[in-house]
Amino acid sequence: MATYDLVVIGTGPGGYVCAVRASQLGMKVAVVEKNATLGGTCLNVGCMPSKALLHASEMFEEAGHSFAKMGVKVSAPTLDLPSMMNFKQQGIDGNVKGVEFLMKKNKVDVLKGTGKILGSGKVEVSADGKSQVIETKNIVIATGSDIARLKGIEIDEKRIVSSTGALALDKVPGKLLIVGAGVIGLELGSVWKRLGAEVVVVEFLDRILPGMDGEIAKQFQRILEKQGFAFKLGAKVTGIDTSGKTLKATVEPAAGGTAETLEADVVLVAIGRVPYTDGLGLKEAGVALDPRGRVQIDPHFATSLKGVYAIGDVVAGPMLAHKAEDEGVAVAEIIAGQAGHVNYDVIPGVVYTTPEVSSVGKTEEELKQAGVAYTVGKFPFTANGRSKVNQTTDGFVKILADAKTDRVLGVHIIGIEAGEMIHEACVLMEFGGSAEDLARTCHAHPTRSEAVKEAALAVGKRAIHM
Ligand code: FAD
Ligand code: NAI
Would you say 353 and 208 are in contact if contact means Cβ atoms under 8 Å apart? Predict the structure, then answer.
């Protein structure tokens, strides 16, 4: 007799959400977590701490630069970095405690230790030199991801840092060199830029934010440059000399050529993340990996070993917390005999900078490549009343719709609160809605979301305020 119906290995957003849903469906569930706290990368060293620092540093920036023009006179703000880090930690603690509460409320057993799969229905949990074997009908692997490293460059989390170290620097670096103009580089670059660092970003490709719509990325780069970011595109860091007081990074053109040396106090390596499967015993147990080291799954999240499933960052797809959560729900429902499903065509992505960048569905480049005939509707925030009165007019909304059917295929926004505004597009797209459906939906005035409605009107060449 199995002790549990389901054992979930890992308590990130994939794992803990899966455990809650499975419990709701009547299963007896345990989670295994090797970290001291629950919540995974997202709650401890990812989404949540980065958003706390983005918020706090944005307030610092606003107090220093935006209040005066609105007639709010304050003396120049000074930075108390330990208090800001404490603010971040309080946010982490609150969320981690929230997950502990959810485990209790849903009667999910929390087994502290490293989980190893011994075979179908058997998980070994080891901690402090002791181990126990747990029997279970089903296993879900939700072990997430780890930082990708640059060959020959050792991350010490003090001077050469990953996102984890960059979330916990004890002073503002004079010069911060960032390798990788992806989401982490631009979000954490924004934090330290606002707090006073000089930021240079070295990116291998000839553009920032690969995967996002090209037009949006171009405008975003211009905005970041106006904020003081410097970009070296089409370049790579090939080595870092750590012998002196200042780090000396060797930067080469990606296509080869003459190298230059850039000095920095701190280097942030943010070149992506890799699936984390260490210590799980997958090979011995017979769980197959794909060529990129991710756990291989079928469309129902099943691995090559009977009764073992996998979700989240450790499998293919965007490495996003909400994608992991939705997979957690879907796999619990599948195990319970229901029709769990994730629509991978409607997974939003948000970059939480100022302004924010958000996106759902296809980019213009993807539609061109697929040979899909499309129409474009765009609306700038300079023509949106609310943005004008707040004097925050950077950015625009871009809607891509099928030229024949008017069905919305992609929505891309750059602007303040873009991360909140994207969700009406997500709902519309889940229902297969058209640009006209969106354009005919009444939007409250005055809101920034009216720019979304206007962009939908612009698909039919009938925007009102432009
Ligand atoms: P994880 O959250 O990585 O959790 C995996 C858990 O498994 C960990 O707790 C780990 O300790 C545990 N574990 C691993 N192996 C074992 C084992 N053998 N036994 C027991 N436990 C084990 N995504 C967003 O959507 N929005 C954001 O704003 C965002 N910001 C981010 C900022 C940063 C700096 C970083 C690094 C990431 C960010 N992400 C963001 C990505 C997000 O954190 C991940 O997509 C998400 O955490 C993946 O969830 P997961 O459940 O698959 O794995
Ligand atoms: P990323 O994949 O977003 O960006 C990495 C960047 O580094 C790419 O632009 C890539 O071209 C570049 N790069 C790769 N090798 C390089 C090299 N040798 N030299 C120079 N540039 C190089 O990865 P990132 O920013 O590390 O984030 C990891 C993951 O975490 C992402 O998948 C992302 O989805 C997730 N994340 C999500 C956030 C959000 O949703 N707001 C916030 C932070 C992270």
Answer: no
